What does this fold into?
Amino acid sequence: MRWTGICFLFFLSGFSALVNEILWQRHLCLILGVSTPAASAVLAAFMLGIAGGAFIFGPIADRCAHPLRIYGLLEGGVALAALAVPMGFVALEPLYRRMHTEWAAGLSGSMMLDLGLALAVLLVPTLLIGGTLPVMGRIAEASDRPLSAAFGGAYGINTLGGVFGSITCGFLLIRSIGMEKTQWIAIIANVAVALLALLASRTAPRNEQSLQAARPGSGMARGPDKTYPLLMLAGLTGATTFGFEVIWNRILAVFTSSSAVTFALVLTTVLLGLTIGGGLASRLGARGADVWKRFCTCQYLLAAAIIASTWWLQSAPPWFDRACASGSARQLFASELALAVCLILLPATLMGVGFPLLATLERTSAFGRRVGRLYAVNTIACALGAVITGFVLIPALGIRAAIGILTAGILASGMTSRIRSATPRQPILTNTILLGLVCWTSLTNHHYQKATGTDLLFYREGNSATVSVRRDPIGRKWLLVDGQPVAGTGRTAQIDQKMLAHLPLLLHPAPHRALTVGLGSGSTSYAMTLHGIDVDCVEIERAVSAAAGEFTSENHGVLNSPRFRLIVDDARSWLRVSPERYDAIVTDCTNIQYKSNGDLYTVEYFGLMKERLAPRGVAAAWVPADGIDEADLQTLLRSFATVFPHTSIWFMNTLATDFLIVVGTPRELSIDMRSLALRMAPPHIRDDLEAIHLDDPWRLVNTLLISGQDLHSYLGRGPVNTDDRPILSYSTYGAGFRQTVARNLTGLLAHRSAVQTYLLDAPDVEPLLRHYAASNEAILGHIAHHLGDERGALAHYLRGAQLLSTDAAFKELVFTAVAQEPMDAVALHRN
It folds into this structure.
């Protein structure tokens, strides 16, 4: 087979390996969770398997006269193992539940258990994938091309296949056809590589070259002792590469939408840079060149590029802000891609030069064994660099200090290689120290933030996100996670936070224990404790609990309450292993597109909620009414109703809010008005509800929008959001550019249920009908408001105020509408 054909095999192999890695990591994260410890364990399992494969198969490749045959067998083995992996995932879930309950003790115990279970499923396929690189090196060595050009080119082509895999899998395949069918595409690619490689090996000449001798004429030094500096440099390059990938993700998370699409953009940009770097390495390692010196030059250029790019991106560039403020989802994608390229591409390219150059340095004996050892050390260092950066350096010292430490590692590798070059300079150590000091002093403390014109009250870079609290000019405080507002003291935020607690608990006949997913400001947890129950809160980022100290007027110090327990974990992971049964479970995620939040709206997640509910338990979730198309809203609600047949949709109409609350009850919705009034009567509950104008039972029940057959009629037939095909994680991208509240409320209002259908023992029909009519006027007014028709909104608010003359909410709505559209309100009402 010609070299171009062999390179095509390397391309397909890189494509399938990257697709498999994305799919398997997603599977494991859905089971073990996406908390920093769990994600670190998953990454470590992958890297250990790949490193082990490189170490084991390197010597085997050297002893084989037909390396293409081994390559084909490895790829065939990956295909067979990939067929068995889904069965491993099926077996892993119940095993994880049992072992986590019995064995896991604390953070370290949980991480070791996650690592062991991940290795149990992925050890065989990752060993085989790791073994392909040293065999690829032997194939390159056996070609008629110079070793540096052959191996650098092969490495670059293989990584280019990974770029293609990242693009197709991250942007297209999972979204359109799902994970299971995408897995089959990767398997078919592995099988194709295996068959073509085995066929080509039958006609390839035997390689009888002495595998213990150095390549003649290379001009490179010999001696086994000279391999240890290479191993050290391979470790440094791997640790810094993955460490900076963590840092780049953290920086871009603050300025971008931090969605599944953004993550795919970062991964693709990194891989593209590594591909270009592999191509450059094939030229830089030309025979006769001082490769040590060239490697040193690349490391110094890399340090300079990192300093320049991170110093440049201290805040979002003006062009990026303009694109986000006035553009569309397409413009958002283009601007996020441009931002990722500006920050990452040049450093990633220089990083990509490193490993191929090291692989062709100081050749002592068997090439496959040496490449395997280098790759094993490099891979293990990659895992360590990512884990230490995300789990230790950033939380303890901050992003800027982490950049300085990793840059110092890059400078150290450059210094080492310069000393070993053919013309070392004596003052290199002094120069490197001075350059490091300049680097360190230039990277001063800095707060990564996108909000402007506000006061910063709290800032902390946690294990998985950057958390801040800001106060706007009118005194409202907002809690932001990676720049995404998740809680606050604004009126809409207060209604959201309080009603996610009160509504499901008031619908339950006698609650004793509740779980809320997401701490936020702590207001929801506090409102739950007002009902005299025990409250668990699962929060993935510990820094959020520290930020809650800025909201004591809202949460009343609930974190210190004996009825409250904070659980720092991933929500899906906790629901799998929790020994508790809850009377109410509430999911409070205020941005579906952010990171893995979309996985908290799948059929499988709602199934986990149902499993943890007590027999009469009630489930509830925050649902966006804005930034989501009606078809996606129906997909979300359909997914919830698939698990909870008795689903109801509630809209807090006392204000022009932009969210819904979906509630699942064990039986068809029924509300005892007398019981509801009694349970709302205690002063501490009544006062909390009065703050958002929902202390009247009649007002509260008329926030019911749709339920029963009316809901089924609205939803119709269509897709659901699943773990296999997470539609909403992709379709909600660019949600900030879509104002869809009016359209969604119009569609829901057209199917609105008659509230009296679900009431028991209503003492008087007249107030019910009056409140129902008033609530319709409020919704119509909100629709007009969201359409920018303040005159029409005021007309509807005035009609509602006439129906409920003493209602504080309508007085506020009328006042606000008049302030926005000054006019003669009485004349308007008459018209």
Notes: The longest strand covers residues 613-624. Residues 644 and 664 are 5 Å apart (CA to CA). The chain has a mean pLDDT of 87. The two ends are 85 Å apart (CA to CA).
